[in-house]
Specification:
alpha+beta; 5-stranded mixed sheet; 4-stranded mixed sheet; globular
Length: 708
């Protein structure tokens, strides 16, 4: 009772920016494969496609999936509702499952007193947004597992993240008793909290004429610089998330403005991550974040969205700096996605767990004895190469493989040529990967999220541009065809989720925004105008079903979706850029390509609403900052026409051009910007700015000089 009394007398706190899982998220169990085990309990989640929901299908808790059936039962029986939200690779979600949701006595209490709903946050990010906001307003923090109690009408009254079993049982008892004895008090609190949820993150309309200035970006960068870790890269606190969009912005801004100190911090960060334990040195790809400031100890789960964005970042950094370490990290991550995260139809899966055999990271770590057994004569080399027993030492005699220097530094240490070192290291990694693959594997969440697959399409385009390898362009085309085919709705929009040949759940704004960006990326490296046509179709669908005319911003959910207790706008950039900032950038580029002022006006109004508040929290507005960079510094339209247009386009991959879009044709084009730019049989390059073109040139080097 004391707990609930505290709840009902508390003031609503101002929410903080959520960094997913920074407080309570680690990782979990498997998501695929038939289950032939005999179980004492089976609930209705057995019929769901989500690997996370199916993990809970044999709990003694009488779980419902999200939907009207659960709330109808709650209203009929006058019970509070538990909305419990997590995802398949969330370690603490599974700890709470083992401790509480598989506990028969606790489950009995839950079933008797509550209607219990289990939600996969990756399938229903709209539901997660609403109840995460509520918990942040109540507690000042958030994370997963997210457990939010609501009235029978879905309005929240209490919540938190992970609860130990004894505390969980007490919460269950206290809340149910207060609902029985004093429902008016809980209803009153729910009304106030509901108002807070509805108002949180609503955007103030800026009706003043847009005035986008370089000084706005300069102040943002100055604020970001104050948080830099100048020794180990990243920011000066732990845990450390890669935050690819932040470094992508800073790389672009530093390059455009000639700020060598800024680009040096970007390169320090990327090098430290590539050498650290957050980077899977053997299998490629990156873990979700590092728990320490050294990039050493990862949360071992691997997410598609992180790796897609990091592939893009390392591809762009490689073009800017030509560091072999970046190329290795890029190629390793591409190989990891190809080997472990790609389905047979071209859709990429969502996540790999941290846990295997009930232990976090067990799949990835090595004892000295295991290395010796795996490598034989190469073991001594590997021990030095991966700092075994020294910097790599972790717990229980294990090591998290990392490197204390790049190939040049290590070659000097070993007294070898770089080429010989790379040959030997490749042999070691090949053998370690083969041995590791014989271990019990972490669980795989094999659902495919449209937005994350779109990020991967963009990543493959960036990789193709940096490396010139047709494999990655072919991967991008194949996945995009799947998204536009099997994940396309009859109304022209996109489905959000794809699994086992079936697309489900009406798409959210990020599904449409990231797919638009991916289509424009595909056009930018292929000059196939069919991709632009598809981007325009999605833009028109988003404007029709997601745009809020009163503010100029986009809702996260479609007007065709059943309403939740609040309709949210996603405006803060996080580990994934905000869907509003993504569509703002996409509409800007699409508007330029098509000379469509409507798209440009929507994009400009969005940015104008945001610009005054960006300096206060720059790391939460890095994608908005990229949209601002397009307007405050020269934005180039590079048009290439003629029979060798694609070859000239490929040559640009040897250069880093951070504030430009590419368009072209080998024949004729319907795009306004290409009109009258075909000069006979010659291949010609036009560098234009704001529709004003410099003198045409016939080679990439000359075009690059025009953009200096």
């Amino acid at each position: 009772m004391a707990l609930v009394a505290k709840l009902c007398g508390s003031a609503i706190l101002v929410g903080t920016l959520l960094v997913p899982g920074c407080d309570t998220t680690k990782n979990g169990n498997s998501g695929q494969g038939a289950d032939s085990t005999m179980h004492d309990h089976t609930n209705r989640l057995i019929h769901e496609s989500s690997p996370y929901l199916r993990q809970h299908a044999h709990n003694p808790v009488d779980w419902y999936p999200w939907g009207e059936e659960a709330f109808a039962k709650a209203k009929a029986e006058n019970k509070l509702v538990l909305v419990s939200i997590g995802y398949s690779s969330c370690h603490w979600c599974h700890v709470m499952e083992r401790e509480s949701f598989e506990n028969d006595s606790i489950a009995q209490l839950m079933n008797e007193r509550y209607v219990c709903i289990k939600v996969d946050r990756e399938e229903r990010p709209d539901v997660d947004q609403v109840y995460m906001t509520a918990v942040q307003l109540m507690t000042g923090r958030g994370g997963w597992p997210l457990n939010c109690f609501t009235l029978p009408d879905a309005r929240p009254v209490y919540g938190g993240t992970y609860f130990p079993p004894q505390q969980w049982a007490q919460v269950l008892s206290d809340l149910a008793e207060t609902w029985r004895s004093d429902p008016a008090r809980m209803i009153s609190y729910a009304e106030r909290l509901h108002d807070g949820v509805k108002q949180n993150e609503l955007v103030s309309v800026n009706d003043a004429p847009p005035q986008f200035k370089p000084v706005q970006l300069a102040r943002m960068v100055q604020a970001m610089e104050r948080t830099f870790d100048r020794v180990d890269g990243g920011t000066d606190h732990a845990p450390k998330f890669p935050m690819p969009n932040n470094w992508q912005f800073l790389l672009r801004y530093g390059t455009i403005t000639g700020n060598a100190d800024l680009t040096a911090q970007v390169h320090l960060t990327l090098r430290k991550m590539a050498l650290g334990g957050i980077h899977d040195q053997v299998g490629g790809g990156f873990a979700r974040y590092s728990v320490d400031a050294l990039w050493k100890v990862p949360h071992f789960e691997k997410m598609l969205y992180d790796n897609a964005q990091l592939i893009s970042l390392y591809a762009q950094a490689y073009r800017a700096h030509r560091d072999p370490l970046y190329r290795d990290a890029l190629e390793g991550a591409l190989a990891f996605i190809d080997r472990e995260m790609s389905g047979p139809e071209g859709a990429c899966w969502s996540a790999l767990d941290a846990d295997s055999e009930g232990e976090e990271g067990k799949f990835y770590v090595w004892t000295k004895e295991q290395l010796g057994a795996a490598l034989g004569a190469d073991a001594a080399f590997a021990e030095k190469y991966y700092a075994i027993g020294g910097a790599a030492a972790w717990e229980h005699g294990t090591n998290i493989l990392l490197r204390e220097g790049d190939d040049d530094e290590q070659a000097r240490y070993f007294g070898m040529t770089v080429e010989d070192l790379r040959i030997r290291a490749a042999r070691v990694n090949e053998r370690l990967l083969a041995v590791r693959n014989e271990r019990p594997r972490p669980g795989l969440d094999d659902k495919s999220i449209t937005a994350w697959n779109a990020l991967m399409v963009t990543a493959w385009c960036d990789a193709y541009e940096a490396l010139g390898d047709e494999r990655w362009l072919n991967h991008a085309k194949r996945t995009m065809r799947l998204l536009l085919g099997k994940c396309r709705r009859s109304d022209g929009g996109l489905w959000h989720n794809y699994k086992d040949g079936r697309a489900t759940i009406n798409g959210y704004l990020d599904d449409h925004a990231f797919t638009m960006e991916a289509l424009l990326a595909l056009y930018g490296v292929t000059f196939d105008e069919g991709w632009v046509t598809e981007a325009r179709k999605l833009a028109d669908h988003a404007v029709l079903h997601y745009l809020d005319e009163s503010t100029g911003m986009f809702w996260y959910t479609s007007d065709a979706d059943p309403p939740l207790i609040a309709r949210k706008m996603e405006v803060s950039d996080n580990v994934i850029p905000a869907s509003n900032s993504a569509i703002c950038k996409a509409l800007f580029i699409l508007g330029h390509l098509l000379e469509d002022q409507r798209y440009m006006d929507i994009s400009t109004r969005q940015l104008n609403n945001m610009v005054d508040g960006m300096e206060r929290y720059p790391s939460a507005h890095s994608n908005w900052a990229q949209a601002l960079l397009m307007r405050t510094h020269p934005w180039y339209e590079v048009a290439i026409t003629g029979p060798m247009a694609l070859e000239r386009r490929e040559e640009f991959g040897q250069h880093y051009v951070p504030n430009a879009m590419f368009l072209g044709t080998t024949g004729t084009s319907a795009l306004p910007l290409l009109a009258e730019k075909t000069l006979g049989a010659a291949t010609t390059l036009f560098v234009c700015e704001d529709k004003v073109c410099r003198l045409p040139v016939d080679n990439v080097a000359a075009a690059m000089k025009q953009m200096k």
